[in-house]
Amino acid sequence: MPLPPLPDAAISLGVRASDWRDAVRLAGEALRRSGATRAEYTERMVQLVEDFGAYIVIAPGLALAHARPGPDVLEAGISVVTLTEPVVFGHPHNDPVGVIIGLAVATPDAHVTTVADLANVFNDPATIPALAAASDPHEVRRIFALDDTLEQEEPAR
Amino acid sequence: MKVVAICGAGVGTSAILKVNAERVLERLDIDADVTASDVASLGTTAADAQVILTSPELVEKIGATNADIVVIENYFDLDELEVKLEAALG
After folding, report:
1. Any idea what the CATH number is for the domain that residue A22 is in?
2. A chain contacts of residue B61, beta-carbon cutoff 8 Å
3. Residue B62's domain is classified under what CATH number?
4. Residue A73: its chain B contacts at CB < 8 A?
5. Residue B47 belongs to what domain range?
6. Short-list A109, A16, A90, A18, CA closest to B58
7. Hey, what's the torsion of the CAs at A127, A131, A135, A136, to 10 degrees?
8. Best residue of B6, B13, B35, B72 to probe chain A, by most A CBs closer than 10 Å
9. Tell me: the pLDDT tens digits for A43-78?
10. Looking at residue B31, what DSSP letter applies?
């Protein structure tokens, strides 16, 4: 399965987060809004960081918010959140975080190609700064090399 | 040769580490089997591994092991992965 589509509902650009929990919840809320997950998944994403620390901050300025597959995942999805003010997650090298990618996968095996495609996008060092600077969802979809012709409506707020 | 990439959930970040480690190992012409796992099942998945790849945040969650623990800061920096994997496996 390639990268899931990235509808406007799954993208929140230039929003405010008071702390890392808030930032993760914004990514979870975007996944829920796009129909990929239920609200419970968002709290499981927060819990993963509570349990294991800030390891989801996998590159300078970038967090990959996710949890295990579960009944609260309705379909595979990704979301993109960018913050006006980056927040601290507590990672020794990669703080502060201004870009949060939410990831939901339906089964443990289905995500392998999704993740490979994500790696392809982010292995380009220009991607994180480009996302942080993106001003509309079209730009975000272009950065992910996703089809930008499907969504014509105004960005969800 | 066995390499295990670990994260808290066993999906997501460890899978990214696995994908990029495989790319680097191919570049280094090193034949290795890379698997992704979560910390909780590390005891079984990494019993025969030479190298455990992980984040600085998870190192203390790894129990006693004979494998080399390689800590990766930027999962998307293939050069960092290459230098550290070559040092551990070369």
Report:
1. 3.40.930.10
2. 52
3. 3.40.50.2300
4. none
5. 2-89
6. A90
7. 90
8. B13
9. 999 999 999 999 999 999 999 999 999 999 999 999
10. -
